[in-house]
Amino acid sequence: MKNIMCLIFSVLTLVIVILASSCGRDAPPVISDFVPPLKLADVESTVPDVAPQPSKAPPLAPPPMPKPVKSVRQVVQTPVQEIKPEPKPQAPAAPSIVGTWQITEMIQNGTSMPLPPGMQMTLTFDDGGTVTMSVSAPQMPQSQTQQGTYTLNNDQITMNIKNEAMTGTCTFEGNTKVTLDFTKVKMVLVRS
Fold first, then answer.
1. pLDDT tens column, 8-35
2. Total domain count for the chain?
3. Does the residue 23 lie in any domain?
């Protein structure tokens, strides 16, 4: 019983503390001044007794119809012309030796050496430094192919085919014609 009394006392103390902390106010509530409501009789007595007079003015015309206004959707959907900057002219790409070239003329010691009729000679340069020379002619039973290597630095070219190295200049005429000028031979090539 003593325990129950202690428990009840503790709960009551806790409730009192909670109520005291939540109900505390610094000042009494502010109440605005009381204004009694108006009675209908007071409002009616302030309106003057005037009988309506017939109007002699002509009847008013209806107001003009407003002009249609574009909706936001119409305004937003109106196409806007974009102003695109003019493209900058790009420098032409540097000609490349990579690809297959037909030998059209060979000059040795200043003398042009025409290719026999029907003979075709090609040089194929890949971008990994390999060159393949192919020769075919009606008199040959089958075309001949030789592989080698090449390096090209600016206009200096070195080709090595069948362990015979040749170093010379490489002069491009656009990207479709090139002249390889070695010490012993000069070759004119066109892209095929």
1. 666 566 556 565 555 555 556 666 666 6
2. 1
3. no
